Amino acid sequence: MVDVLGGRRLVTREGALVEAEAALQNKVVALYFAAGRCAPSRDFTPLLCDFYTALVGAARQPAPFEIVFVSADGSAQEMLDFMRQQHGAWLALPFHDPYRHELKRRYDITAIPRLVILRPNGEVITSKGRKQIRERGLACFQNWVEAAEVFQNFSG
Questions:
Q1: Which of 11, 87, 89, 103 has the fewest CB atoms within 10 Å of its CB?
Q2: CA trace torsion 4, 10, 12, 16 (10° rounding)
Q3: More confidently predicted of 31 and 59
Q4: 137: which DSSP letter?
């Protein structure tokens, strides 16, 4: 993820800053483009939360997976409210980081919510992460790991 988020700081749901490189190293990364005011985002986020918790939060051996929320909210407060009310313990690009707009352009985000799954080098594995999670649940993750060539002892 050095190519995409290297040198950037990400924020946790609690407001702590973390270095992107350290948090995302050797992981499949999902960029989650969404907004709290968007009904489809509010509908999908709990499902994403369950997916993330099963892979990372509640797993005996956490999967090599991280979500980075890229807000399309209208204000920093809307973003924080959405994160605190619905999000899992994943990371976010700070609201005031102008790179949010560059990521939307780079990954051709024309509608939300969108979950773009990336290799560690920033190449797209799929831009249909939301659809795949809805249709296949946890089974889609193994395909992402194989496509990302993230070699860790993970079995789903």
A1: 89
A2: 160
A3: 31
A4: T
